Amino acid sequence: MGCLPRHNGALIGQYRNHTGMRCPRWVAWMCASGILLWAAGCSLGQPEAVGPESEGMSMDQFAQTDFNRTVTLEIRDNLDSLYSLLDKLYRRNPREWRKSGVPTQEAAVARVRKMIENRTPPADLSGLRDIQILAVSLDPAYTRDRVAAFIYGLADTLIAAHNDKTRIYVSDVLHGQRIYNAARNVEAAAWLLASRRNVAGEPLLLANEISPTVTNLSFEREFGAIIGRLDLIANLLGENDRRIGINYAQGLLFFNFLPVR
Fold first, then answer.
1. What does 131-185 look like in DSSP terms, one character per residue?
2. How far apart are CA 131 and CA 155, in angstroms?
3. Phi, psi values for residue 210, rounded to 5°
4. Are 146 and 96 in contact (CB under 8 A)?
5. Longest Cα separation, the chain
6. DSSP 106-145
């Protein structure tokens, strides 16, 4: 039976329950402590939960296994990482987005995102795909928007390795080797971005920065996150194929019949 303060919210003292009988002092302390904790919680508010971002329920998820969902989220997160790199590269290399003729850096980012979502390469690279575009973007002779070509080439490479899809379903068959190759392509692209120079000896694009006053390795961390996600999926696909063979061999070894109902 609950205890309530007798007068003006007093926390300690005379307490009565609804029968009119006095509550023991220890019960009064418990009630008072609860009120104080509740008040503190209301005044301070609850901290926001921090964790991986998910997505709302949709009908197409009924056509996805747990692993399909894992791969779909991997593609989403890797594209988000590329969009982050797109913004960072444009900020460090504003001359590139100005080549596209858009009025602002934000408009240039939106333009490239739309190209990726629609699988439409830059107009000057029409007819090329994935690693072909990536190779052109890192060619010192290329004079157009190098950032747009570089990020589009990476995005198209990742999507192509996932059967040209950004959402994976039960009917899709992924190849671990293609995902693994995509991870190695990202590694190569990151290394070339950091090392390749133009005829004047300048970096093709400014990215990571290490100087006596500034250390900016955010590009390297973003590339590392993309590579890590790809390698995880490649390893899981390889393990899945291996387990299919092992389970079949175990069935033969122990003469297990397969269920029919």
1. HHHHHHHT-TT--S-HHHHHHHHHHHHHHHHTTT-SS--TT----HHHHHHHHHH
2. 10
3. -130, 115
4. yes
5. 93
6. HHHHHHHHHHHHHT---GGGTT--HHHHHHHHT-TT--S-
Q: How far apart are CA 226 and CA 151, in angstroms?
A: 13
- Give the Cα separation of 119 and 22 in Å (integer): 75
Tens of pLDDT, residues 48-92: 544 556 666 676 777 788 889 999 999 999 999 999 999 999 999
Q: How many CB atoms lie within 10 A of CB 5?
A: 17
Answer whether 230's CB lies under 8 Å from 182's CB: yes
Tokens of 126: 């029409």
Distances (CA, A) of 177 to 9, 24, 79, 241, 246: 69, 72, 20, 12, 20
- 131, two tokens: 């690693």
Helices and strands in the chain, H and E counts: 8, 4
Q: What is the pLDDT of residues 200-248, one digit of tens each?
A: 999 999 987 665 665 567 888 999 999 999 999 999 998 765 554 545 5
Decide: 118 and 126 in contact? Cβ < 8 Å: no
94 confidence band (pLDDT: 50, 70, 90): very high
Tokens at 196, concatenated: 């390749």
- Residue that wins the pLDDT comparison between 18 and 121: 121
